[in-house]
Specification:
acyltransferase, alpha/beta, Acetyl-CoA C-acyltransferase, Thiolase_C, Thiolase-like, 13 helices
Length: 391
């Protein structure tokens, strides 16, 4: 089977909601990533076969085909097509899967997989909230689904609480994990470990002055146990707080995926090879634990042992997710999210998939390691798993 290679992978630094990236239209934010992928890799923009863009809240400024609007806002020629996809938090990870599958099938040679989400300008939940406020329809779940699963709605916050109870994770354990995420992220930022993957942009400070946006705004180098313990739980009597859950975030990210033929014809240098792709579906109510069976399937079908995987990126949507994954998979915590995760760095929904991949690719190469695995929970009880080999 033909191989698929990553020749460039990058992301913007995360912007807090209402933070440094608040003035960026999401199409322009995504376009900046497209332009940087092309310029950094030295790819002929007219040779790009497709752009696959992940975005969760496709409404308002992210509506009317955000993927195509990113292309139109970029320096890419009009001849480059695009498609917008939504697999919830895994949208741009799925974009990477589609890009790799297109290349591995031999139907395309150069594809950009990317994602964008401005949680400042298009707040989370807007696609559901706006129609209901206008009195249009009954929401995304018909009675047939509600009756089948005995719920009135599907909530990731509820799923996170369910996971904490199921796996016996108390508040202290979740807060300790969150604190560790901030400490790792702060150390990585101070050591410039993110420099290779970051696209530096112009941002705004609190007073509206122009600033260089080159550091993830969510990192709290001064985070402490007392501060985390003082936060109120989201649900009465629960254990999930804003401190042990991922941060709302503005950002964009992308990877450039090519065939072996494109490597030779365009003189491109690969950073990594796509080793395996997997996606599974499971319980839509607890929903967040699907990375566990998805990882088992990916390792089984790829023929890789867990011992072969040098680094793991497991999205920190909520602290119980990576903690349960570690326990059930039997993985080494020292290989998990080595530069911190979404609790510290932010979770720009549709952009998080290729954001994590950019971090994984460059972390493997910086450490001289070989195999990496990325997975994340997704709304509806779905999970993607990607295994790569750094080159």
């Amino acid at each position: 089977m033909p191989e698929a290679y990553i020749v460039e992978a990058l992301r913007t630094a995360g912007g807090k909601r209402g933070g440094a990236l608040r003035d960026w239209h999401p199409a322009d934010l995504g376009a900046a990533v497209l332009d940087a992928l092309v310029s950094r890799s030295g790819t002929d923009p007219s040779a790009i076969d497709d752009v696959i863009a992940g975005c969760v809240s496709q409404v308002g400024e992210q509506s009317f085909h955000i993927g195509r609007n990113m292309v139109l806002a970029s320096s890419l020629p009009d001849s480059v097509p695009a498609v917008s996809i939504d697999r919830q938090c895994g949208s741009s990870q799925q974009a990477l899967h589609f890009a790799a599958q297109a290349v591995m099938s031999g139907t395309q040679d150069i594809v950009i997989a990317c994602g964008v989400e401005s949680m400042t300008r298009v707040p989370m939940g807007t696609p559901v909230i706006l129609p209901m406020q206008a009195g249009i329809g009954d929401g995304p779940w018909p009675d047939s689904i509600k009756q089948r699963y005995r719920v009135n709605e599907f909530s990731q916050f509820t799923g996170a609480e369910m996971m904490a109870r199921k796996y016996g994770f108390g508040r202290d354990m979740l807060d300790d994990f969150a604190l560790d995420s901030h400490r790792k992220a702060a150390a990585a930022a101070d050591a410039r470990a993110f420099a290779r993957e970051l696209l530096v942009l112009d941002g705004l400070d609190r007073e509206g002055n122009a600033v260089r946006h080159d550091r993830d705004e969510g990192i709290r180098a001064d985070a402490g146990r007392d501060g985390l313990a003082a936060l109120k739980t989201i649900a009465p009597g629960g254990v999930i707080t804003a401190g042990n859950a991922s941060q709302m975030c503005d950002g964009a990210s992308g990877v450039l995926v090519v065939s072996e033929r494109a490597l030779k014809e365009h003189g491109l240098t690969p950073l990594a090879r796509i080793d395996h792709l997997a996606v599974t579906g499971g319980d839509p109510v607890i929903m967040l634990e699907e990375p566990i069976p998805a990882t088992r399937r990916a390792l089984d079908r790829s023929g890789r042992s867990l011992a072969e995987i040098d680094l793991y990126e497991v999205n920190e949507a909520f602290a119980p997710v990576p903690l349960a994954w570690l326990r059930e998979i039997g993985a080494d915590p020292n290989r998990l999210n080595v530069n911190g995760g979404a609790i510290a760095l932010g979770h720009p929904l549709g952009a998080s998939g290729t954001k994590l991949m950019a971090t994984l690719v460059h972390a493997l190469r910086a450490r001289g390691k070989r195999f990496g695995l990325q997975t994340m929970c997704e709304g509806g009880g779905i999970a993607n798993v990607t295994i790569i080999e750094a080159l």
